[in-house]
Structure formats: C-alpha cells, structure tokens
Design goal:
With 381 residues, this protein is an alpha+beta fold. It has twelve helices and 14 strands. The strands form four sheets. A seven-stranded antiparallel sheet has the order 3-13-12-11-10-14-9. A three-stranded mixed sheet has the order 4-6-5. It has a two-stranded antiparallel ribbon with strand order 1-2.
C-alpha cells in the first residue's frame, strides 16, 4: 500500500535535513552554545578540585616532613600546616616516651600521627601540650606490669572515642589515606622505579664484608645488598631473622594491627624466609655476631629504637640538598628509614607488600640524611 502524500513529504524533508551539511553546522553551533557554559563550569570545578587535592597533598607532606611552605599558599592554610607540624613534633616525643616503656619494638609512628592529622588538621589555633600528646598516644597502647604493649587499630579507635575524640568513618578513611601516602608514597602504591631481588636464600654470608668485627658503613651496605639480593620480606617488628611460625605468632600477638591486618599476605609470601622492617634492617646488621652468624638482640651497643629515634639521636645529619655521596648513610622521613648504597640508590624495607627493595634516591621524598649512631664512618682514615 502506498504511503500517504503527507508522510512521503515529511520523510523527504527529514532526509534532506539530515543530509544538509549547513543544517548540521547550524545545529552544532546551537548545541555548542548551550553546552559551553556547562563545560566551562565542569572545567572550573575540576580545576578547583585538582588544586585543592594538590594543596591537601602538600599540607600532609609538609606537616609530616617539614620544608618550606610555598609563598603562594594561602596564609590561613600555611598556619594550619605550621600548627600541625608542631603538634606532630610533640607527638613524636610522646611516642618515644611510650616506646621507652616497651620491652622491645616500636609503635607505628605514622599510624598515630595520621589519625591525629585526620582528626585535627584545620582546627583553629591548634596546639598540643606534652601531657595531651601522651594521653593521645596512650590510646594506642595497653600497660601490663608497667610495660607498654601496642593494641590493635580497632581497640585504639575505641579508646580514642572513649576519651572524647570524634572518631567517625570519614576520619578513619582519611587517616588510612594519609597513612598510605606517608608509608608508601601515595595511595598505598609506589609508582616510582622499584628493583627487586629474590633468590630466596635465608643464608647470611659475610664473605664480602670489609671488617666484620667492626660495625661500619661499608659492611652495612654489603649486608643491605645481601638482604635485597635474597628478597627478604617485610614484617613489622622483625629485624632479619627467619620468620618461623613461632616468630610469626609472637608478632601477630605483639602487633595485631601492623602484622595482623596482613596475616594472609605474610603467610603466603614471607613465611619461612628472612624478614625485617625498615629500621630492623639497620638494627639486624648492628646485632649480627660475625662469629656465630646469629642476630643477637640488643648487642654491640645498638639499642632497639625506632626510625625517628635513630634520626633524632644522630650526631651528624642534614637536609637532602647537603647529602654527601657516602654509601652507608641513612636517609629518613617521618616514620621510615633506608640505607643509601651509592650510585643514587637506596635499599629499604619498604612495606609489607614490597619487602626489601632498591629505589632511586630522588624518587622517595626523603627529608634528611644521617650518619647512623653506633656505625663507624671513618674506616681507613
């Protein structure tokens, strides 16, 4: 049956309209004029959010690690950073005091400060007394026979809530993001170049040591290279021993958060091999007995201290722009430490998901370098 004349004319008009380039150009202009303001608004919002994100990242880095606050940063924002940086310094002292009451090991410095930052950054006239800092830190430990014992993250949050802190899901989420940024370089994933070893050997070998009887920077480098080549794992609170079931169980009990939250990963990847944490890589060398080839806890005048305490106790240190090219120096940022091995490379126990790896010195935003106390840097002079 033939189409009605009106329909035929309509179809022909539609086809002509659709195939006319001038018509489409006109439509495009109209659509663009309608959408352009919306697009510009979206671009502006994206730009504002991006700038805000950059400000937030800069605030975290400067608060934790110090440095020059950019002149372009708003004065009020700069004031918040200065206040937070001072508070985190007071927290460092309180954490060190609590660690002195521990029977070995260290608190998760970055975790405690990340939570404090999430709770208080931006507060007006923020300040923190020594007693207030200690009360905050005490939420992360329990005391048994006057000895401090770390508690799990959930228990810490519960104690903080009971003490009057406004701990909610947003605070916890922000604290975790801050923690991952400071511990791993951003969002829990480090995007710079990482070199990995991996022979899996658990044998300690000092055949490449220069003077095994003396704790010196060159042998520290050789020890770190061996840990890297063998692919040592990372477990909070360990310092180079083989991770047996017994040792693993004790660390699970000692650090229910720092170890317990990664139990499955550790069991699948690190159990049965040698493991360490960042400062444990240095302490393990300090405690290594070259005669027995055993890592003997607390020996050779090397105390069981945290990365931050090691930095603070250094007699020789400086900002990164003054760092000499001396293998065996340590590089430090809040809560973390690595060993400079020369040629622009650092060996560090980076985190549970990484183990002992080699990174570029320039990639990791280190705050300072130091001569490690109890290590001889004058070998051969």
């Amino acid at each position: 049956m033939a189409a009605p004349a009106a329909v035929t004319l309509t179809v022909k008009a539609a086809v002509a309209f659709a195939t006319d380039k001038r018509t489409w150009k006109a439509v495009g202009v109209v659509v663009a004029s309608i959408l352009m303001p919306i697009i510009l608004i979206l671009v502006m919002i994206s730009s504002i959010l991006s700038a805000g994100s950059d400000h937030n990242k800069a605030a975290i880095d400067l608060s934790f690690n110090g440095g020059r606050i950019p002149a372009a940063m708003p004065a009020e924002y700069a004031s918040h950073i200065s206040n937070m940086s001072e508070c985190l310094g007071v927290l460092d002292e309180a954490i060190s005091e609590a660690e002195a009451q521990m029977e070995g090991g260290a608190l998760d410095n970055i975790r405690i400060k990340s939570i404090f930052y999430s709770l208080y950054f931006g507060a007006e006239n923020l300040s923190l007394s020594a007693s207030e800092a200690r009360a905050f830190v005490d939420c992360f430990v329990a005391y048994e026979d006057d000895a401090a014992v770390p508690v799990g993250l959930n228990a810490a949050y519960e104690k903080l809530s009971l003490s009057g802190e406004a701990v909610n899901s947003e605070v916890k989420t922000n604290a975790q993001k801050i923690y991952e940024r400071m511990a791993f370089g951003g969002a829990g994933t480090f995007t710079g170049e990482i070199e990995r070893g991996g022979t899996g050997s658990a044998v300690l070998d000092i055949s490449s040591f220069t003077v095994p009887a003396t704790k010196n920077n060159l042998d520290l480098v050789a020890y770190a290279e061996q840990a890297f080549d063998s692919g040592w794992g990372y477990v909070w609170g360990t310092y180079g021993d083989v991770l047996t079931e017994s040792l693993f169980s004790s660390k699970l009990e000692q650090y229910p958060d720092g170890v317990g939250n990664y139990e499955s990963f550790i069991r699948d990847n690190w159990l049965g091999g040698r493991t360490t944490d960042c400062v444990g890589l240095i302490k393990g060398y300090g405690w290594l007995n070259p005669n027995t080839m055993e890592i003997e806890y607390g020996t050779n005048d090397m105390p069981d201290i945290s990365a931050d305490s090691m930095y603070k106790s250094a007699a020789v240190s400086g900002s990164m722009d003054t760092m000499p090219d001396v293998p065996g120096l340590a590089v430090w940022k809040s809560g973390h430490i690595g060993i400079y091995v020369g040629n622009g490379k650092v060996i560090e126990a980076m985190g549970t998901k990484y183990g002992v790896v080699k990174t570029n010195l320039a990639d990791r935003s280190w705050s300072a370098w130091l001569e490690i106390p109890y290590i001889n840097y004058n070998l051969g002079e």
